[in-house]
Design goal:
This protein is of the alpha+beta class. It has 1 helix and 5 strands, in the order βββββα. Helices cover 13% and strands 24% of the residues. The strands form 2 sheets. It has a 3-stranded antiparallel sheet, with no helix packed on it. A two-stranded antiparallel sheet has the order 4-5.
Length: 86
Amino acid sequence: MPIYEYACRKCGEITEKYRLVKDRDEAPECEICGGMTRKILSISRPHSDLDPYYDDNLESHIKSKQHRKQVMKEKGVSEKFGKGWR
């Protein structure tokens, strides 16, 4: 279920609500003042797919999921079975 943002017409408070797509235009009451809200367009906030960390098993610093896959491939490690397993 997608999340939508609604701005209060009275106090300006932004409220986030999970809604079915068909219900997205049904604006909820403001949780702060009870005023009417309207759906607003949200800006996507880019975020990392993974926080960098050191993987003891791979003996490497991992920067992202893609980087982890690359390191695993270079070391001959399978996600399912581990190094050298068949």
